[in-house]
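User: Can you model how nicotinamide-adenine-dinucleotide sits in this protein?
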Amino acid sequence: MRILVTGGAGFIGSCYVRGLLDGVHPGYEDARVTVVDKLTYAGNRANLPERHERMRFVRGDITDAEFMREQVAGHDEVVHFAAESHVDRSLHAASEFVRTNVEGTQSLLEACLRAEVDRVVHVSTDEVYGSIDEGSWSETRPLLPNSPYSASKAGGDLIARAYWRSHGLDVRVTRCSNNYGPYQHVEKLIPLFVTNLLNGLDVPLYGNGLNVREWVHVEDHCRAVQAVLTGGEAGGIYNIGGTALSNRDITDRLLDLCGADRGRVRHVEDRKGHDLRYAVDDSKIRTLLGYRPRISFEEGLASVVDWYRDNPGWWKPLLPAPSAPGGEGAGA
Ligand code: NAD
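Assistant: Here's the modeled complex, given as structure tokens:
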């Protein structure tokens, strides 16, 4: 088995690759893994082992069609994580999101088609459905993305559908809720708040903090991606949900875990167009593929706080300049 993983030195992709190398996915213990990553500000080579007999790391850009054709050739399966992933940055610099998330996805899928790859998982997000006041989105609901990030991810989803419908390429799409876990860049809500609290700083909470997101541990997300890779169907779309919490609830839990009081919360101006609530119905992946999350939110969040406490050498070099996008507030 030869598997190519895009975005494998980012937060979720590196968790997936470490899992492959650690043999956590049955049947893939001998898989040879090629990681393709541009190593943008969000990618970190230190998220992966320096050397591994079953891994090859190639630095490059998924929008480079010729480069991708060369890389994909000879692989059986592809898992596509590479993306520009931060909503706040997409409000300031949307073109890079369209380039990587739409054009990059197309360039990758074209390379997969030419190389006759057996199957591809396109890793997408629950944000493509947009905000929902009550209830939850199933996979058949229309896409109503509200940020340049989610719109570019929705564009990638539609390109994936087109390569399946037009060319018969076996592409499956996952739409997961917010991830948390170790190795997540400090610009995202949980790492930003934890590292601020560990540094004795306030935490900048957007608006009234009532925005609700579902949270899934990154290892559970990777197990779900693997379930779709091995058991899903061509053209299938699979939601992956998590534990629903408001940003205020998350903040309170982080304050408690870090031994800080409520006075450390600084309310900052809300994100433009901030979606109020995301909620997905993930009964399809549970019923058809037998996927179940294994990590409870309480246990997972405590272990993540411990990880950041124990690994300042990983996150201190990533701390944003005070004026950088995302430094003003944090949502998810
Ligand atoms: P991340 O920002 O941590 O990592 C993205 C990786 O992609 C980085 O290593 C970066 O260097 C690489 N990359 C960016 N542009 C590239 C390009 N043009 N060519 C090659 N590599 C490039 O993101 P993440 O949080 O690990 O998210 C991974 C995927 O999962 C994304 O597709 C994202 O949309 C999706 N997703 C994320 C979440 C979440 O909560 N983080 C939830 C659901 C879905």
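A couple of observations from the model: The chain has a mean pLDDT of 95. The radius of gyration is 19 Å.
User: Helpful, thanks.
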